[in-house]
Write a structure and sequence with these properties.
With 128 residues, the protein is α+β, with helices and mostly antiparallel strands. It is built from 2 helices and 10 strands. Helix content is 21%, strand content 40%. The strands form 3 sheets. Strands 2-3-4-5-6 form a 5-stranded antiparallel beta sheet, with no helix packed on it. A 3-stranded antiparallel beta sheet has the order 1-8-9.
Length: 128
């Protein structure tokens, strides 16, 4: 670090350390969560009945239920977030030529965190 004066350099150093601590706090303030329930479950559910669908239920940072289901045949992914706002979003994954692709869940572990009053939820999907 190049500084014009010892005072300015000290202030810059303190600011950089404060920023690093904030960034470190943000990255460490998440929770890793496993699904509360996954449907179908091999050995319990008749997987042929679900015909390519798989659903996972998680809990977000505040304990609200997050349901994610994937239609493997169409590439459709839908999210239902059981908050007071009852939010939902869905999208369809397509290949480079607009063709259908098969989608599946990636890692079973999801991450959730809260910043200010906003909850975040992160998970992975994979294209087969």
């Amino acid at each position: 670090m190049i500084c014009m004066s010892k005072t300015v350099c000290s202030q810059l150093s303190r600011k950089i350390v404060e920023d690093l601590l904030i960034v470190s706090f943000c990255f460490n303030a998440y929770s890793q969560v496993l699904p509360v329930l996954q449907i179908p479950q091999s050995g319990i559910d008749d997987t042929t009945f679900y015909n390519g669908y798989i659903t996972r239920f998680y809990r977000d940072f505040d304990g609200n239920v997050v349901q994610i289901y994937i239609d493997n045949k169409s590439g459709r992914v839908v999210h239902l977030w059981a908050t007071t706002m009852n939010e939902s979003i869905g999208f369809t994954v397509r290949g480079a030529q607009g063709d259908q692709v098969k989608v599946k869940f990636g890692d079973e572990i999801a991450k959730t965190y809260k910043e200010d009053k906003v909850c975040y939820f992160e998970y992975t999907i994979e294209i087969e």
